[in-house]
Each structure stands twice: as C-alpha cells, then as structure tokens.
Amino acid sequence: MSKNRILSHVRRALEHRPSPVLPDPLTLPGLSREEAIALFTERLSGNGGEVVRLPDLEGAREWLEGFAKSFSGAAVSRMVPPVLYPALPALPPEEAPLGISWALGAVAETGTVLLSSREGRRTQLLPPTHLVFVPEEALYATLLEALQALKDDLPSAIGLHSGPSKSADIGQVMVKGVHGPGRLVAALIAEPHD
After folding, report:
1. Residue by residue, what is the 3-state secondary structure of the chain?
2. For residue 178, what pLDDT is reported?
3. Pairing of strands 105-107, 112-116
4. Are 177 and 165 in contact (CB under 8 A)?
5. How far apart are CA 74 and CA 68, in angstroms?
6. How far is CA 52 from the centre of its chain?
7. Residue 58: how many other CB atoms lie within 10 Å
8. Least packed by Cβ within 10 Å: which of 20, 39, 63, 80?
9. Tens-of-pLDDT digits for all 194 residues of the chain?
10. What is the β-pairing status of strands 129-135 and 98-102?
C-alpha cells in the first residue's frame, strides 16, 4: 500500500509540469562526399586524431607497408580484409603496439568512427596506436543517418571513437592514452572493393 501512496504523491507533484520536448534530430542537408570528408577530417583532427585518404585497397596496402614499419607487431581484427594485414608479427592486443580495425562507418558531424563489438573491443582499446580503415562509402553526415543505414545488421554494441583516449581526471591535466589508444588514425578508402 505504501508504494501506491508514494506513486500517487509523485503523480500529483508532476501534474503541472510541462512535458519534456526533445530536439529535432540534427541534419546536415545536401553534404557532398567531399564536404563530408572535409568535415570528418576537421572534426577528428580537432579531437587529436589523424586522417589519411587512400584511393583503394591496393593503395591502402602500399601505404600500410610504410606506416607499419615503426611497429614491432600488430593485433588485427578479423573484420579487416586479408590484403590489409601488415607484414608484422601477430600479437595479442594487450602486447601489440598497433591495433587495426575495419569501421562499420564514420560520422562527419562529430569526426567519429563506428566500430563493431563483433571484432572484439580489445583490439580497439588496448594497443597504444589504433588504425581504423573506413570505406568512404560508409561516411555519413550524421549519427542518425549512420544508424539508419546500419539498422538491419547492428551488432550488440557499437564503439564510437572520436579521437585518441584523453582524460583530465587528476589535477585537470590532460593526458592521452589513459583509457584507450593515445593515437587514432582513420584511413579513408575511396574504393574499398576489389
């Protein structure tokens, strides 16, 4: 009985309050592919990330050869196409200096890459450097557009990464790499298919 009495008091207290109004979804109408890429690059770079543009899988493979030379090993997601496996020893994520992922997509408005829980979060979070390959065809203006495009095959969780891990929890001093990679590189591939 006390539960009903408490709930009736709560209902009476809320009777005269206005109903909350949610804002309309943000839209960025008519962004061209180049405008979306420029906005994504600006936003991710502004958050401390890096963006590289690559023409196709072959160009991505060639770029990766040079990029990977400074690493002693890598943890590679099983979602990454085999052509993009670096010529490095395969290491578990907790030992690898480089983690490589394949994005579900990216969001221009926030400079965010969307990563699937299906590939395993350890590769996304444990190596100090995280390289994410992003097909340009999966670059969306807004998060709403991205989620609508992915709705038929959403994983149980999506990681939203908008730059390297940062924290100013202690003494208001910004430190990178505390809760995840200290370096995030998004490699946009113009034509990801063979």
Report:
1. CHHHHHHHHHHHHHCCCCCCCCCCCCCCCCCCHHHHHHHHHHHHHHCCCEEEEEEEHHHHHHHHHHHHCCCCCEEECCCCCHHHCCCCCECCCCCCCEEEEECCEEECCCCEEEEEHHHCHHHHHCCCEEEEEEEHHHEECCHHHHHHHHHHHCCCCEEEECCCCEECCCCCCCEECCCCCCEEEEEEEEECCC
2. 58
3. antiparallel
4. yes
5. 9
6. 15
7. 12
8. 20
9. 688 888 888 888 888 888 777 666 566 667 888 999 999 999 999 999 999 999 999 999 999 999 999 999 999 999 999 999 999 999 999 999 999 999 999 999 999 999 998 888 888 888 999 999 999 999 999 999 999 999 998 898 899 998 886 555 666 665 555 566 789 999 999 987 65
10. parallel
The owner of tokens 């405008």 is: 35
pTM: 0.81
181 near 128, Cβ under 8 Å?
A: yes
Half-sphere exposure of residue 43: CA atoms within 13 angstroms, side-chain side: 18
pLDDT at 181: 79
